[in-house]
Design a protein that fits this description.
361 residues, alpha/beta, 9-stranded mixed beta sheet, 16% strand
Length: 361
Amino acid sequence: MTSLLECAVAISVDNLGEAHRMLLELTQTASPYGPSCAERVVAYFAKAMASRVINSWLGICNPLINHKSVHSSLQVFNNISPFIKFAHFTSNQAILEAFHHHPRVHIIDVDIMQGLQWPALFHILATRPEGPPHVRLTGMGTTSRDLLAETGKQLSSFAKRLGLPFEFQPIAQKFGDIDATTLQLRGGEALAVHWLQHSLYDATGPDWKTMRLLQQISPRVITLVEQDMAHGGSFLDRFVGSLHYYSTMFDSLGAFLPSDDQSRHTVEHGFLYREINNVLAIGGPARSGEDKLKQWRSELGRNGFAQVAMSQNAMAQAQLILNMFPPAHGYTLAQSDGTLRLGWKDTSLSTASAWTGHAYR
């Protein structure tokens, strides 16, 4: 770990030759298949930092994203870890409560991917005592319009089987790159915006534009799931924060999966490494021209939104998810200031919070 930190310092001061020399040593001594979590973390961080050095020399930093491969890795992650289920079920509960007694509802998912979250919510909405609402779902993403349309087709088929009135609107753009008219908002609809944040790629565009659009449309509820890791700041700041975050994440997987487990390798290589590479080799103001906000929860509070405390029902949903994993695995759940936190051995890794626009206070 000491050599890795020294290499990060060299990169931060643009001493790329020295960084390259150290990275050659690191990549020869650390393997992503190693028996210890620390060795695997060093291997993946060294690989990402080597990409950064090469990108700096060649002047490129925007690789193509294989969305199908990413989605496949995320499905495996969902099967062996509670983090995605935590995001889905706590957010669904907050949206359900915000939609209470509303006959027409509209959900904007700023990065829908395969839409795995929504069938569970559809099922609850379809069985509401007051009758099912008319549901409109706007699915956004940087993937192709064809993939978005396929997601919409599957969700439409599921809604039809439930007898749930449903419309799907695909928008193959980033949330921060559009204006309010693109969303085709309608009067009389209760509006929810859902944002499950990740570090795989920039899903929303410039943060200031994303915030401006949220202020313009003023949703009844914003459900925000954040990685408990600062995304802004200098390269060295991002390195230190991400090293702590991903070391803990790797430890959580290594605690109950053997080193040769295929699912574990799929998640580490196909998901966690992609995030590490994006944070260290692609992200940052020097490359994107934009400095990302470090924590959206505090920024929403400063920009006119009010936090809605996560309910006891949301806490119960999160606890049910954790009950799927033996206590010995070390996952922890806490609630503070209306925010739910999921972590591993008391290190917070994911937070879920809900917010509302000024019109609904």
